[in-house]
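Something for you to look into today, if you have time. What I am after is a single protein written out in full by you. I want to see for myself how the chain folds. Could you add the entry underneath, on a fresh line?
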Amino acid sequence: MGYDLSRPVPPPQRRRWVPEHLRWPIGFALAALAVFFLHYYASRLGADGFLQTWLPRASLNEALVWVICALGLNIVVGYAGLLDLGFVAFWAIGGYTAAWLMSAFFYQIRVHLLGSVPTNQPGIHFSFWMVLVAGAALCFVFGVIIGAPTLRLRSDYLALVTLGFGEIIPQVFRNGDNVFGFNLSNGDKSITPVDPIYSVAIEANGLSIRNLGPFDLLSKYLIFVALAALIIFISLRLREGKLGRAWLAIREDEVAASAMGVPLMRTKLAAYGIGAVAGGIGGVAYATHVNGAFAGTFRFSISITLLAMVVLGGMGNVWGVTLGALILAWVNSTGLPQFGNAFNAQFGTEINFTSYNFLLFGGALVLMMLFKREGFLPESRTRLVLREHEKTAVGQDAIEVDELDEQVERAAAGEGSDRR
């Protein structure tokens, strides 16, 4: 039996140093470490002026909180296909959980459990790491409670119900200073300060274990990176598991998924609950970042911004959502204001670019939906579906044009025979 010399021999595949499934995790880790060392050595050398202007540490930490919450929303919207317009509710619940369990707000009692403050202070003082678990658990319960009334709803009706919950819960906290005579949230006066994080601190002479103050932003950056990496890991593992495949089946066709034996109620509630866990962790981290729980910060625009991060980054793609959250958070907090300052200084104008934030943001959304609907880094399944629809539409148009030409030719032939 000889070889078929006419058959082309495929070129040998090049051996890759990094497996494909590890490229993005390694890239995320290297980027996070690069930013850390860049800030660390620049501050020690006194040459961090540019970084503090265009890449401040506070904005980095806040951007990581946005990443955590956007990944939670991606589980609900990107994986399960359930439109959620009230995700800010879980952010608020997580923030107030930290405020209740890490402050002297409930001064009537004195409970200390591995807290970072002296035991003679009033209030509830738990460790930050315990509060993360408590915030995640409480948000899981509320996620199931909020998701239960939406099990029979789809599309616009589902969006309206989640929008209602997203408006109710922040209003409860805003007006919670007198709930049947009990002060639940201190109203617009907010709850501040919260206890510092007891963790490893980065100092000039090395590492030490102590309470992280408001200016230990570099140490908090490592904590927020670890939390974001944890949510990324959970999202990726869920995506490849049985539950993730059930979510994708519901997203593609709920009726077909139910016919194939996917339990709709349990699977949908799992999506709401697990997504809410990420929102709770992000809320606890945000409370320690801003040193309190402020009722006025939990606005409806947060839910819309999170949804835009998921859609623009690439719905269903963990790394696309992470990239979209980092870019949009940086533009909102630092990029647009600094660009406006540089532009005004260069051309002698006085344009307030931050006041046009939503105008520019809306224009970017329109352009993305027109020219790149699948997002920056789309999921492979979503990209194929959108391109297939485009090809089908183009083919349908071509068929309609051919049929129209045939009708015109038949009409012309009919007119010629009538004249004869």
About this structure: The radius of gyration is 27 Å. The mean pLDDT is 85.
